[in-house]
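A further point concerns the way the authors explain their paired sequence and structure data. An entry of this sort, consisting of the sequence and the corresponding C-alpha coordinates, reads as follows:
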Amino acid sequence: MNIADLVNPGPPQVPRRSPSNPHSVSAPSPAVSAAKLPTPPLTTHKSMPQKRKRRDPKPIWAYLENEDLPGELKAELAQREPRQHSRPAPPTPRPQPHPSPAAQSNGTPVAHQAVMGPPPAGPPPAFAPRELGGFERPLTNDVSIYDEVVRKVCDFIWKNVVENQVLQEAVREGPRCCQIEIEARWGQIIDRQLNTRLQGLHDSECILRSSVAESTKFESTMSLQQHQKMNRFLNEHTSKSQKLDANRIVHKHTKEIDAFYELDQHGFKTLAPAIQNIIHQSRSKQRIRVTRMQDSGQIVAKIIKQRVANLEISSPQTEWDYRIGVNLEIQYPGPVETLPPVVEHGQTPESMRRIKDRVSYSFNKAYQVDLTQVSQGPNKNHELELEVDAGMLLQAADNIKQGRPSDFESLVTGMMNNLRVLSREMTPQN
Protein backbone atom coordinates (compact mmCIF):
# COMPACT_ATOMS: atom_id res chain seq x y z
CA MET A 1 0.00 0.00 0.00
CA ASN A 2 1.34 3.40 -0.94
CA ILE A 3 1.32 5.58 2.17
CA ALA A 4 1.49 8.68 -0.01
CA ASP A 5 -2.04 7.97 -1.16
CA LEU A 6 -3.26 7.94 2.44
CA VAL A 7 -1.18 10.57 4.13
CA ASN A 8 -1.09 13.85 2.28
CA PRO A 9 0.29 16.59 4.45
CA GLY A 10 0.98 20.07 3.24
CA PRO A 11 2.34 23.30 4.62
CA PRO A 12 0.01 24.85 7.23
CA GLN A 13 -2.19 27.60 5.81
CA VAL A 14 -2.11 30.97 7.50
CA PRO A 15 -5.71 31.53 8.64
CA ARG A 16 -7.64 34.26 6.91
CA ARG A 17 -8.03 37.20 9.22
CA SER A 18 -11.42 38.33 10.36
CA PRO A 19 -12.58 41.67 8.92
CA SER A 20 -11.25 44.59 10.92
CA ASN A 21 -14.62 46.29 10.60
CA PRO A 22 -16.85 44.69 13.28
CA HIS A 23 -19.93 45.49 11.20
CA SER A 24 -18.61 43.62 8.18
CA VAL A 25 -20.46 40.41 7.47
CA SER A 26 -19.49 38.23 4.53
CA ALA A 27 -21.73 38.90 1.55
CA PRO A 28 -22.47 36.32 -1.14
CA SER A 29 -19.41 35.96 -3.34
CA PRO A 30 -19.50 36.38 -7.10
CA ALA A 31 -20.23 33.28 -9.07
CA VAL A 32 -17.36 31.33 -10.50
CA SER A 33 -17.36 30.92 -14.25
CA ALA A 34 -18.66 27.58 -15.42
CA ALA A 35 -15.33 27.10 -17.16
CA LYS A 36 -13.75 26.63 -13.74
CA LEU A 37 -15.77 23.50 -13.04
CA PRO A 38 -15.56 20.18 -14.92
CA THR A 39 -18.14 19.94 -17.69
CA PRO A 40 -20.15 16.69 -17.58
CA PRO A 41 -19.92 14.68 -20.81
CA LEU A 42 -22.80 14.94 -23.22
CA THR A 43 -24.85 11.78 -23.60
CA THR A 44 -27.19 10.63 -26.32
CA HIS A 45 -29.81 7.95 -26.50
CA LYS A 46 -27.47 5.64 -28.40
CA SER A 47 -24.60 6.02 -25.97
CA MET A 48 -26.66 5.48 -22.82
CA PRO A 49 -26.01 2.18 -21.04
CA GLN A 50 -28.72 -0.43 -20.85
CA LYS A 51 -28.85 -0.22 -17.07
CA ARG A 52 -28.25 2.51 -14.55
CA LYS A 53 -24.65 2.49 -13.41
CA ARG A 54 -24.41 1.15 -9.88
CA ARG A 55 -21.73 0.77 -7.30
CA ASP A 56 -20.88 -2.90 -7.22
CA PRO A 57 -20.35 -4.40 -4.77
CA LYS A 58 -22.31 -2.34 -2.26
CA PRO A 59 -20.21 -1.56 0.85
CA ILE A 60 -21.01 -3.75 3.83
CA TRP A 61 -21.74 -0.81 6.14
CA ALA A 62 -24.51 0.41 3.80
CA TYR A 63 -26.76 -2.63 4.31
CA LEU A 64 -29.70 -2.14 6.64
CA GLU A 65 -30.53 -4.88 9.13
CA ASN A 66 -33.57 -6.03 7.18
CA GLU A 67 -31.64 -6.28 3.90
CA ASP A 68 -30.38 -9.59 2.53
CA LEU A 69 -26.62 -9.76 2.13
CA PRO A 70 -25.14 -11.18 -1.09
CA GLY A 71 -23.56 -14.60 -0.93
CA GLU A 72 -19.94 -13.43 -0.74
CA LEU A 73 -20.66 -11.13 2.24
CA LYS A 74 -22.63 -13.86 4.02
CA ALA A 75 -19.68 -16.19 3.60
CA GLU A 76 -17.28 -13.53 4.88
CA LEU A 77 -19.37 -12.93 8.01
CA ALA A 78 -19.75 -16.66 8.59
CA GLN A 79 -15.99 -17.02 8.70
CA ARG A 80 -15.61 -14.17 11.20
CA GLU A 81 -18.35 -15.13 13.65
CA PRO A 82 -19.76 -18.42 14.98
CA ARG A 83 -23.26 -19.36 13.90
CA GLN A 84 -24.81 -18.15 17.16
CA HIS A 85 -23.53 -14.63 16.40
CA SER A 86 -25.35 -14.35 13.11
CA ARG A 87 -27.04 -11.10 12.09
CA PRO A 88 -29.86 -10.32 14.60
CA ALA A 89 -33.41 -9.64 13.52
CA PRO A 90 -34.15 -5.95 13.04
CA PRO A 91 -36.08 -4.21 15.81
CA THR A 92 -39.76 -3.59 15.25
CA PRO A 93 -40.02 -0.05 13.88
CA ARG A 94 -42.08 2.37 15.92
CA PRO A 95 -44.25 4.82 14.00
CA GLN A 96 -43.32 8.43 14.61
CA PRO A 97 -45.58 11.45 14.16
CA HIS A 98 -44.97 13.74 11.24
CA PRO A 99 -43.52 17.15 12.08
CA SER A 100 -46.13 19.83 12.42
CA PRO A 101 -46.36 22.59 9.80
CA ALA A 102 -45.16 25.07 12.43
CA ALA A 103 -42.00 23.07 13.04
CA GLN A 104 -41.38 22.81 9.30
CA SER A 105 -41.79 26.52 8.68
CA ASN A 106 -39.62 27.63 11.58
CA GLY A 107 -36.03 26.30 11.55
CA THR A 108 -35.52 26.73 15.32
CA PRO A 109 -37.38 23.60 16.57
CA VAL A 110 -35.50 21.47 14.03
CA ALA A 111 -32.21 22.94 15.22
CA HIS A 112 -33.04 21.96 18.80
CA GLN A 113 -33.57 18.34 17.77
CA ALA A 114 -30.32 18.12 15.81
CA VAL A 115 -28.07 19.79 18.36
CA MET A 116 -29.54 18.10 21.44
CA GLY A 117 -30.45 14.60 20.25
CA PRO A 118 -30.85 11.80 22.84
CA PRO A 119 -27.52 10.46 24.13
CA PRO A 120 -26.90 6.72 23.88
CA ALA A 121 -27.45 4.75 27.10
CA GLY A 122 -24.61 2.29 27.52
CA PRO A 123 -23.57 0.53 24.30
CA PRO A 124 -24.67 2.26 21.08
CA PRO A 125 -28.17 1.08 20.07
CA ALA A 126 -28.97 -0.30 16.64
CA PHE A 127 -29.49 2.39 14.02
CA ALA A 128 -33.22 2.54 13.27
CA PRO A 129 -34.00 5.43 10.91
CA ARG A 130 -37.32 7.18 11.09
CA GLU A 131 -39.86 5.13 9.19
CA LEU A 132 -41.39 6.94 6.24
CA GLY A 133 -45.15 7.06 5.95
CA GLY A 134 -47.92 8.83 4.09
CA PHE A 135 -46.76 10.91 1.14
CA GLU A 136 -43.10 10.42 2.07
CA ARG A 137 -43.14 6.69 1.46
CA PRO A 138 -42.14 5.81 -2.14
CA LEU A 139 -43.92 3.39 -4.46
CA THR A 140 -41.35 0.71 -3.61
CA ASN A 141 -42.68 0.83 -0.02
CA ASP A 142 -39.18 1.41 1.37
CA VAL A 143 -39.34 2.41 5.04
CA SER A 144 -36.42 4.83 4.75
CA ILE A 145 -34.39 6.64 2.09
CA TYR A 146 -30.71 7.33 2.65
CA ASP A 147 -29.04 10.73 2.44
CA GLU A 148 -26.68 10.72 -0.54
CA VAL A 149 -24.20 13.21 0.94
CA VAL A 150 -24.09 11.26 4.22
CA ARG A 151 -23.38 8.05 2.30
CA LYS A 152 -20.43 9.67 0.51
CA VAL A 153 -19.05 10.90 3.85
CA CYS A 154 -19.48 7.38 5.23
CA ASP A 155 -17.49 6.02 2.27
CA PHE A 156 -14.78 8.62 2.87
CA ILE A 157 -14.39 7.71 6.57
CA TRP A 158 -14.59 3.98 5.87
CA LYS A 159 -11.82 4.16 3.28
CA ASN A 160 -9.47 6.52 5.10
CA VAL A 161 -9.99 5.28 8.67
CA VAL A 162 -11.58 1.84 8.90
CA GLU A 163 -9.77 0.24 5.96
CA ASN A 164 -6.57 2.28 6.28
CA GLN A 165 -4.19 -0.44 7.45
CA VAL A 166 -1.28 2.00 7.88
CA LEU A 167 -3.39 4.12 10.21
CA GLN A 168 -4.66 1.10 12.12
CA GLU A 169 -1.12 -0.16 12.63
CA ALA A 170 -0.14 3.19 14.15
CA VAL A 171 -3.16 3.18 16.47
CA ARG A 172 -2.29 -0.31 17.69
CA GLU A 173 0.85 1.17 19.21
CA GLY A 174 -1.49 2.46 21.95
CA PRO A 175 -3.44 5.60 22.94
CA ARG A 176 -0.30 7.15 24.45
CA CYS A 177 1.29 6.93 21.02
CA CYS A 178 -1.35 8.47 18.75
CA GLN A 179 -5.06 8.99 18.22
CA ILE A 180 -7.27 9.39 15.17
CA GLU A 181 -9.03 12.72 14.83
CA ILE A 182 -12.17 13.09 12.72
CA GLU A 183 -13.19 16.72 12.60
CA ALA A 184 -15.30 19.04 10.50
CA ARG A 185 -14.62 22.73 9.99
CA TRP A 186 -16.92 25.52 8.94
CA GLY A 187 -15.42 27.93 6.42
CA GLN A 188 -15.45 28.78 2.73
CA ILE A 189 -14.07 27.00 -0.32
CA ILE A 190 -12.09 29.60 -2.27
CA ASP A 191 -11.30 29.44 -5.98
CA ARG A 192 -7.53 29.98 -6.19
CA GLN A 193 -7.62 31.89 -9.48
CA LEU A 194 -10.51 34.24 -8.72
CA ASN A 195 -9.89 34.39 -4.94
CA THR A 196 -13.65 34.29 -4.33
CA ARG A 197 -15.91 31.71 -2.76
CA LEU A 198 -16.63 28.78 -5.06
CA GLN A 199 -20.00 29.17 -6.77
CA GLY A 200 -21.12 27.98 -10.14
CA LEU A 201 -23.26 25.24 -11.65
CA HIS A 202 -24.53 23.85 -8.34
CA ASP A 203 -27.26 25.54 -6.29
CA SER A 204 -27.42 23.10 -3.38
CA GLU A 205 -25.14 21.12 -1.07
CA CYS A 206 -22.68 18.86 -2.88
CA ILE A 207 -19.33 17.13 -2.38
CA LEU A 208 -16.42 18.42 -4.44
CA ARG A 209 -14.63 16.04 -6.74
CA SER A 210 -10.92 15.74 -6.09
CA SER A 211 -10.15 17.31 -9.47
CA VAL A 212 -12.05 20.46 -8.44
CA ALA A 213 -10.66 20.48 -4.90
CA GLU A 214 -7.13 20.71 -6.27
CA SER A 215 -7.89 24.14 -7.74
CA THR A 216 -9.41 25.48 -4.50
CA LYS A 217 -8.37 26.21 -0.94
CA PHE A 218 -10.36 26.08 2.27
CA GLU A 219 -10.38 29.07 4.63
CA SER A 220 -11.71 28.33 8.10
CA THR A 221 -12.77 31.64 9.56
CA MET A 222 -15.69 33.86 10.49
CA SER A 223 -16.18 37.50 11.38
CA LEU A 224 -16.23 38.80 14.95
CA GLN A 225 -19.95 39.46 14.60
CA GLN A 226 -20.60 35.87 13.50
CA HIS A 227 -18.45 34.56 16.35
CA GLN A 228 -20.49 36.51 18.90
CA LYS A 229 -23.79 35.37 17.40
CA MET A 230 -22.72 31.72 17.44
CA ASN A 231 -21.53 32.06 21.04
CA ARG A 232 -24.96 33.38 22.09
CA PHE A 233 -26.73 30.62 20.15
CA LEU A 234 -24.68 27.81 21.71
CA ASN A 235 -24.91 29.28 25.22
CA GLU A 236 -28.68 29.57 24.88
CA HIS A 237 -29.05 25.90 23.98
CA THR A 238 -26.62 24.89 26.71
CA SER A 239 -28.72 26.75 29.27
CA LYS A 240 -31.96 25.17 28.02
CA SER A 241 -30.45 21.70 28.11
CA GLN A 242 -29.61 21.96 31.83
CA LYS A 243 -33.31 21.68 32.70
CA LEU A 244 -33.46 18.20 31.19
CA ASP A 245 -32.40 14.91 32.74
CA ALA A 246 -30.94 13.87 29.39
CA ASN A 247 -29.81 15.73 26.27
CA ARG A 248 -27.53 17.98 28.30
CA ILE A 249 -24.83 20.04 26.65
CA VAL A 250 -21.65 20.33 28.71
CA HIS A 251 -19.50 23.38 28.07
CA LYS A 252 -15.91 24.17 29.06
CA HIS A 253 -13.94 27.42 28.71
CA THR A 254 -10.16 27.14 28.28
CA LYS A 255 -7.36 29.59 27.54
CA GLU A 256 -4.20 28.08 26.09
CA ILE A 257 -1.02 29.06 24.27
CA ASP A 258 0.48 27.07 21.39
CA ALA A 259 4.17 27.15 20.52
CA PHE A 260 5.77 25.20 17.67
CA TYR A 261 9.08 23.31 17.54
CA GLU A 262 10.90 21.47 14.78
CA LEU A 263 11.05 17.67 14.97
CA ASP A 264 14.78 16.98 14.77
CA GLN A 265 16.44 13.63 14.10
CA HIS A 266 16.85 12.82 17.78
CA GLY A 267 13.17 13.49 18.46
CA PHE A 268 12.19 11.44 15.40
CA LYS A 269 13.94 8.37 16.83
CA THR A 270 11.87 8.55 20.01
CA LEU A 271 8.69 7.80 18.07
CA ALA A 272 7.20 4.32 17.58
CA PRO A 273 8.29 2.44 14.42
CA ALA A 274 4.84 2.68 12.77
CA ILE A 275 4.80 6.44 13.36
CA GLN A 276 8.31 6.83 12.00
CA ASN A 277 7.18 5.02 8.85
CA ILE A 278 4.22 7.37 8.35
CA ILE A 279 6.31 10.50 8.82
CA HIS A 280 9.09 9.17 6.59
CA GLN A 281 6.66 8.34 3.79
CA SER A 282 5.04 11.78 4.00
CA ARG A 283 8.37 13.41 3.00
CA SER A 284 7.50 16.63 4.82
CA LYS A 285 9.00 18.55 7.70
CA GLN A 286 7.01 17.99 10.86
CA ARG A 287 6.29 20.38 13.69
CA ILE A 288 5.52 19.67 17.32
CA ARG A 289 2.69 21.78 18.70
CA VAL A 290 3.22 22.32 22.43
CA THR A 291 0.12 23.55 24.24
CA ARG A 292 0.34 25.22 27.66
CA MET A 293 -2.30 26.58 29.99
CA GLN A 294 -2.27 30.38 29.76
CA ASP A 295 -2.50 30.99 33.51
CA SER A 296 -0.09 28.36 34.86
CA GLY A 297 2.17 27.59 31.89
CA GLN A 298 1.61 23.86 32.45
CA ILE A 299 2.12 21.71 29.35
CA VAL A 300 -1.12 19.88 28.48
CA ALA A 301 -0.22 18.44 25.06
CA LYS A 302 2.73 17.82 22.71
CA ILE A 303 1.24 16.88 19.35
CA ILE A 304 2.49 16.17 15.84
CA LYS A 305 -0.58 16.55 13.65
CA GLN A 306 -0.34 14.43 10.50
CA ARG A 307 -2.97 15.05 7.85
CA VAL A 308 -4.42 11.91 6.26
CA ALA A 309 -7.27 13.06 3.98
CA ASN A 310 -9.83 15.85 3.48
CA LEU A 311 -13.30 15.92 1.96
CA GLU A 312 -14.87 19.26 1.08
CA ILE A 313 -18.58 19.99 0.83
CA SER A 314 -19.92 23.10 -0.86
CA SER A 315 -23.08 24.63 0.60
CA PRO A 316 -24.01 27.64 -1.56
CA GLN A 317 -27.35 28.23 0.19
CA THR A 318 -25.64 28.92 3.52
CA GLU A 319 -22.90 31.19 4.82
CA TRP A 320 -20.34 28.40 5.15
CA ASP A 321 -18.97 25.34 3.41
CA TYR A 322 -17.54 22.32 5.25
CA ARG A 323 -14.30 20.37 5.32
CA ILE A 324 -14.28 16.85 6.79
CA GLY A 325 -10.74 16.00 7.86
CA VAL A 326 -9.04 12.81 9.04
CA ASN A 327 -5.82 13.42 10.98
CA LEU A 328 -3.41 11.43 13.08
CA GLU A 329 -2.51 13.16 16.34
CA ILE A 330 0.88 11.78 17.36
CA GLN A 331 1.91 12.21 20.99
CA TYR A 332 5.50 13.40 21.21
CA PRO A 333 7.13 11.52 24.12
CA GLY A 334 10.34 13.51 24.58
CA PRO A 335 11.25 16.85 26.16
CA VAL A 336 10.83 20.02 24.08
CA GLU A 337 13.32 22.30 25.82
CA THR A 338 16.17 21.25 23.51
CA LEU A 339 14.14 21.39 20.28
CA PRO A 340 14.61 24.34 17.90
CA PRO A 341 11.55 26.65 17.80
CA VAL A 342 9.77 27.23 14.51
CA VAL A 343 10.37 30.79 13.30
CA GLU A 344 8.98 31.84 9.93
CA HIS A 345 10.43 34.64 7.81
CA GLY A 346 9.90 38.04 9.42
CA GLN A 347 8.66 36.50 12.66
CA THR A 348 10.05 35.93 16.15
CA PRO A 349 9.37 33.01 18.54
CA GLU A 350 7.12 35.36 20.51
CA SER A 351 5.07 36.43 17.46
CA MET A 352 4.72 32.77 16.37
CA ARG A 353 2.76 31.90 19.53
CA ARG A 354 -0.97 31.25 19.12
CA ILE A 355 -3.19 32.33 22.03
CA LYS A 356 -6.45 30.35 22.01
CA ASP A 357 -9.58 31.42 23.84
CA ARG A 358 -11.92 28.45 23.38
CA VAL A 359 -15.38 27.39 24.51
CA SER A 360 -16.17 23.70 23.92
CA TYR A 361 -19.70 22.25 23.84
CA SER A 362 -19.98 18.46 24.22
CA PHE A 363 -23.20 16.49 23.70
CA ASN A 364 -24.58 13.03 22.95
CA LYS A 365 -21.26 11.56 24.18
CA ALA A 366 -20.20 11.68 20.53
CA TYR A 367 -19.73 15.30 19.41
CA GLN A 368 -17.84 18.39 20.52
CA VAL A 369 -18.20 21.86 19.01
CA ASP A 370 -15.24 24.21 19.56
CA LEU A 371 -15.71 27.96 19.17
CA THR A 372 -12.24 29.53 19.26
CA GLN A 373 -10.68 32.96 19.02
CA VAL A 374 -7.04 32.65 17.94
CA SER A 375 -4.66 35.57 18.45
CA GLN A 376 -1.26 35.56 16.77
CA GLY A 377 0.64 38.84 17.06
CA PRO A 378 -1.73 41.67 16.13
CA ASN A 379 -4.06 39.33 14.19
CA LYS A 380 -7.19 37.57 15.41
CA ASN A 381 -9.04 34.72 13.75
CA HIS A 382 -12.32 33.08 14.70
CA GLU A 383 -12.94 29.39 14.06
CA LEU A 384 -15.75 26.87 14.49
CA GLU A 385 -15.04 23.13 14.50
CA LEU A 386 -16.95 19.92 15.17
CA GLU A 387 -15.22 16.74 16.30
CA VAL A 388 -16.87 13.32 16.30
CA ASP A 389 -15.64 10.64 18.69
CA ALA A 390 -13.37 8.43 16.58
CA GLY A 391 -13.55 5.60 19.11
CA MET A 392 -17.32 5.37 18.75
CA LEU A 393 -17.04 5.37 14.95
CA LEU A 394 -14.42 2.61 15.00
CA GLN A 395 -16.54 0.53 17.39
CA ALA A 396 -19.56 1.02 15.14
CA ALA A 397 -17.47 -0.04 12.13
CA ASP A 398 -16.32 -3.17 13.97
CA ASN A 399 -19.95 -4.00 14.74
CA ILE A 400 -20.68 -3.88 11.01
CA LYS A 401 -17.79 -6.22 10.25
CA GLN A 402 -19.04 -8.65 12.90
CA GLY A 403 -22.64 -8.52 11.68
CA ARG A 404 -23.94 -6.75 14.78
CA PRO A 405 -26.27 -3.72 14.99
CA SER A 406 -24.30 -0.55 14.31
CA ASP A 407 -24.58 3.21 14.67
CA PHE A 408 -21.99 3.98 12.00
CA GLU A 409 -24.25 5.77 9.51
CA SER A 410 -26.26 7.34 12.33
CA LEU A 411 -23.12 8.94 13.82
CA VAL A 412 -22.14 10.40 10.44
CA THR A 413 -25.71 11.62 9.90
CA GLY A 414 -25.56 13.42 13.25
CA MET A 415 -22.29 15.06 12.28
CA MET A 416 -23.74 16.35 9.02
CA ASN A 417 -26.97 17.51 10.68
CA ASN A 418 -25.03 19.59 13.20
CA LEU A 419 -22.94 21.14 10.43
CA ARG A 420 -26.11 22.10 8.59
CA VAL A 421 -28.01 23.40 11.62
CA LEU A 422 -25.25 25.74 12.80
CA SER A 423 -24.48 26.93 9.28
CA ARG A 424 -28.13 27.77 8.63
CA GLU A 425 -28.34 29.57 11.95
CA MET A 426 -25.58 31.91 10.80
CA THR A 427 -27.05 32.51 7.35
CA PRO A 428 -29.15 35.72 7.10
CA GLN A 429 -32.77 35.17 6.12
CA ASN A 430 -33.61 36.48 2.65
Q: What stands out?
A: The longest strand covers residues 299-314. Residues 408-426 form the longest helix (19 residues). Confidence is low (pLDDT under 50) at residues 1-54, 82-128. The chain has one domain: 3-8+99-426.
